[in-house]
Design a protein that fits this description.
The complex is a heterodimer of chains A (262) and B (270).
Chain A: E1 2-12, E2 15-25, E3 30-34, H1 41-48, E4 56-62, E5 73-76, H2 88-93, H3 102-115, H4 131-144, E6 149-153, H5 161-178, E7 181-186, H6 189-195, E8 198-202, E9 209-214, H7 228-251
Parallel strand pairs in A: 3-7, 3-8, 5-6, 6-7
Antiparallel strand pairs in A: 1-2, 1-4, 8-9
Helix pairs in contact in A: 3-4
Chain B: H1 31-47, H2 59-72, H3 74-106, H4 108-121, H5 130-137, H6 141-165, H7 169-177, H8 182-220, H9 225-234, H10 238-266
Classes of the chains: A alpha/beta (262), B mainly alpha (270).
Chain lengths: 262, 270
């Protein structure tokens, strides 16, 4: 499905965090939202998922959801948001309980656990898992509802660099299979360059669209040595767009940051 | 061993050790003999005439008094009366407390009206209400149950809503983002998340209930461990008095063990 932002703006207690965001995420596209801390990236994602009512503008969803879709707009969270009292299988099943019967549920849970390499951990509790495994559960839970649009809120930033690399590879494999429309919020340039078809750069608060950059290389070829120079150029271009914003945001007082919980 | 080497003309000394300590270990096998030693000292002091057996009867006479009470069936009568009051009063107060605690945790109106009410009434020593409850309900069981229930009510309310407040809001947002119903968010996210707090509240409310049980039984009861202790004191039967105290302490330990068991079973995920 296609996700359309139309002149979306937002403010928390008079503090403007987003302004005039008009953006279209095409069906099957992965769009990365890149911006300095506090620029309203997560706010934009919360608005997209219907968790926050925008002060201005609207978000619309066009097209028909995929077969078996139970929850068109589905999140993957930075802090994983797993229920610690449920097992891996229980966490994945959570969103299926209202709609699928026990048998269908079990089949679907088993299927996504297999795809995410979690089958052996079905009975484990979150506290027994590493950060990387927890986020795999987050991904499995999101895939289980067959989403039309995946909303990913810095899904890798709580992980160490090596685990991040590992999960990035796995995401990309899963993506190639599912081709789910994806909005991927990150502050990591390299992550955006690895995963996105297009990168939307936001300015510092109030977040406005600073630029849109297409990554004209197939995802599978981006790590190839012969493309290193091309990727390097794109990275430099991205950094040119964002460096000034990051510098200015860094000098702002921390107390003026947007509330974390919308 | 090729790596370590230093210039011959430089001073060399070993790095001094500065860590260690401040990490008390439990020497498990030492506690029971220590306990036994204390009991023997007590027994010895009593037999040697250092302590009057009337002021503090030796463990052996307490044990004898306890077995006499058990043999005559008195212990059973007292214990049954106490257990009934404790369990019924605690369940009454805890259920009502859970209900209000959840209301405060979930609804804005409940919170706005509930928290000041709880804050205002919580500091009242609940035993002070017993005379009023006796006027309302008579000297029989209901006034005692009401006192115990009132004592169990407040810690339950506070721990239940604090438990709900402690559930990370990100989990609620997660539930909403996956399209969970209101009901499912309460029963699958908020309540299980509040359970550690609720069980911590049960520890507090049960110990308060035990204190109030004894106090209420001392004010007006024929049977009950509190009544036994009071009557034994009036008759200068300190051995029976101490037997009652031992029973109360065992009761407290049992309750604590039961809650510990519930915690291990229900909170195994922690």
């Amino acid at each position: 499905m296609q996700l359309l932002f139309e002149e979306v703006g937002h403010a928390f207690d008079g503090l403007r965090v987003l302004e005039g965001i008009s953006l279209s995420v095409a069906a099957g596209e992965t769009l990365a939202i890149l911006g300095p801390s506090g620029c309203g990236k997560s706010t934009l994602l919360a608005i997209a998922g219907g968790l926050l009512r925008p002060a201005r503008g609207r978000v619309r969803l066009a097209g028909t959801p995929p077969a078996g879709c139970l929850n068109p707009l589905t999140y993957v969270f930075q802090d994983f948001a797993l229920l610690p009292w449920r097992t891996v299988a229980g966490n994945v099943a959570l969103a299926l309980e209202a709609t699928l019967d026990r048998r269908a549920r079990r089949e679907r849970v088993a299927e996504v656990l297999r795809r995410t390499g979690l089958s052996d951990f079905a009975a484990a509790y979150p506290r027994q898992l590493s950060g990387g495994m927890k986020q795999r559960v987050g991904i499995a839970r999101a895939l289980a509802v067959r989403p039309a649009v995946l909303l990913m809120d810095e899904p890798l930033s709580a992980l160490d660099a090596q685990t991040r690399e590992l999960l990035l590879e796995e995401f990309l494999t899963l993506w190639r299979e599912a081709r789910t429309t994806t909005l991927y919020v990150t502050h990591n340039l390299d992550e955006a360059l690895r995963i996105a078809d297009r990168i939307c750069v936001l300015s510092r608060r109030p977040g406005r669209i600073r630029g849109l950059l297409e990554v004209p290389l197939p995802v599978a070829e981006r790590t190839a040595p012969e493309n290193a120079a091309r990727i390097g150029e794109l990275r430099a271009e991205l950094w040119r767009m964002i460096a000034e914003e990051v510098r200015a945001a860094d000098r702002e007082l921390a107390s003026a940051r947007e509330p974390v919980d919308g | 061993m090729a790596e370590p080497a230093h210039r011959a003309d430089e001073p060399v000394r070993e790095v001094p050790f500065r860590g260690g300590g401040f990490a008390p270990r439990r020497l498990r096998h030492l506690a029971p003999p220590f306990f036994l030693l204390l009991l023997l000292l007590w027994e010895g002091a009593s037999r040697a005439g250092l302590v009057s057996p009337l002021a503090l009867p030796p463990p052996s006479s307490i044990l004898t008094a306890l077995s006499d009470l058990a043999a005559s069936g008195d212990l059973r009568r007292h214990l049954e009366a106490s257990l009934y009051r404790l369990v019924a009063g605690w369940i009454l107060g805890t259920s009502a407390g859970l209900l209000l605690g959840l209301l405060i945790g979930i609804s804005s109106l409940g919170r706005t009206l509930g928290i000041p009410l709880v804050a205002a009434l919580f500091p009242i020593p609940k035993i002070a209400m017993l005379p009023l409850f006796i006027l309302w309900f008579g000297i029989g069981e209901p006034s005692k149950l009401a006192t115990i229930a009132l004592g169990a009510f407040f810690p339950t309310v506070i721990n239940a809503y604090a438990g709900i407040d402690n559930v990370p809001r990100s989990l609620v947002r997660m539930g909403q983002s996956f399209g969970l119903s209101h009901r499912a968010i309460v029963f699958e996210i908020l309540l299980p998340g509040a359970l550690p707090g609720i069980l911590a509240g049960a520890r507090i409310s049960s110990s308060i209930a035990l204190v109030l049980l004894v106090a209420a039984e001392m004010i007006g009861a024929q049977y009950g461990i509190g009544a036994l202790v009071l009557q034994a004191g009036n008759l200068m039967r300190t051995d029976q008095l101490m037997a009652g105290v031992v029973v109360l302490s065992l009761l407290g330990l049992t309750i604590s063990a039961l809650i510990g068991l519930a915690e291990r079973r229900l909170l195994a995920w922690r």
